[in-house]
Every structure is written in C-alpha cells, then in structure tokens.
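Q: Structure tokens for this one, please.
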Amino acid sequence: PTLKALMKHRVNEETPTLGMLGMARLSTGQTVPLKTGVEVDIIQMDKATDVPPGTTSNSDEEAWDISLRAGRRFTIEGEVDKMEEGWTEARVKFLDSSEEEENEISAIVNNPSSAASTESIGDRLSVARAISRAKEFTAPNMNMRDGASLVDRWIELAKQNERHPGQISTLLKQLGEIPPEHEPTERALWVGALINPLPSMGVAMEIRPALLVSKKAEERVEVALEGLLKSIRHMDGTERLS
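A: Here is the predicted structure, written as tokens:
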C-alpha cells in the first residue's frame, strides 16, 4: 500500500520517478536496505482492466497495471528521512559508469599527484581485466552447445523456461542491445537485468544487490559472469541451484 501511494504521488510529477533501494539479507535472515539503489521511471499506472472475476485480495484496494523502467544508479548521501505518508526521502548522488571506471584508471579523486602511483597502475590493470572479461558474455564459448556465447545460451534456455509465451523476447526488447565490451560496468548491469527480471523467473540467483554494492568494474563483471553461468547450469540441469 505504501509503494502504491508513493507511485500515485509521484505520477503527478512532470517526470515521475522514485528511488528503489537494494536489499541485503543478513546471516540471521533479516533484510536491511542498502545505501545504493536505482532510479525508477513510472512508465504507466492505470487501473487494471483484465482482473479475472472472483479474484480476491488481502486488501480492499483496486488492482493496478504498472510499468516501471530502471534508470540511473545512485548512492544515498546523508540521512534518510521517514515521511508521515510511510515512505522515505533522501538526498542522492547519481553514479556514472564511465566516470567510475575513469577514476579507477587515473586514481585521481582527491590527490592529483597520485597518477603515477602503484595504486594507479593496479587500478588501470583492474579496468583492463574487466574489459577483457566482459568479452566473455558475447564471445563464442566452446563449453556451450554449438559454441554459443554465454548470453545466447542463456537466452536459448530461458525461452524454454518462460512463465508465459514471449516473456524473453519482450524482456530483450525492453533491455535493448547489450552495451559494448569497453563498457564493462554497463555490460554487467545489463546481464543482471537479463537474468533477474521482474517478475522473477526463478532460474537465477539474485545478483542485483551485489552489483549495486561492488566498488570496481572488475567486481561487477565477475558477479555477472558467475550469476550467468550458474543460471545456465541450473537450466541445463548440470548443477541445480539450491
């Protein structure tokens, strides 16, 4: 109810958006919000017209058809304020993948004199490794059937596990083309959106929180590669997810 109320409030804005935070699950089973999240565009919010007769709900609220689109990543700056309507508000800083990777390469954030330091060399190699590894998403892979790339093999298997016909084709249309290999962070985030769509298909482990909290491009690519491979192995039956 709180989320629906927030969306009703925001949809009247000229550019209706809201922020959605990632969630982390502790070893105790408790979930806590992260300091990082994604800006969400409210594309459509209309009263549902195709609710089956006799459908019941735990509340008296009407059903709605809602379309959302993920946008820019952000990190919260300062404190989070709880509003009387039930939602939270905070000041955020939007993140740019190219700037993050450039900062890794140059290591010039607060100390311009560090450009030639060992740390700078290490960061430069880290981004280079991320670009190299990012090629694996779309490169022919001899471990896959017919030498398909990891992404193509996942798509092939996912189409056999759709919740409804055309689900993957619609998802791919919404995502657009996979970003180029020289944009490793954007590639990793694209893969995260591919294997963890909403609603969930239940064929991959949840990697979006890990992608959001990763500090380096190389880490994001590794998270996405691991999630993609485990999902492929789950769907082809070689190693089921527990």
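A few notes: The mean pLDDT is 86. The two ends are 32 Å apart (CA to CA).
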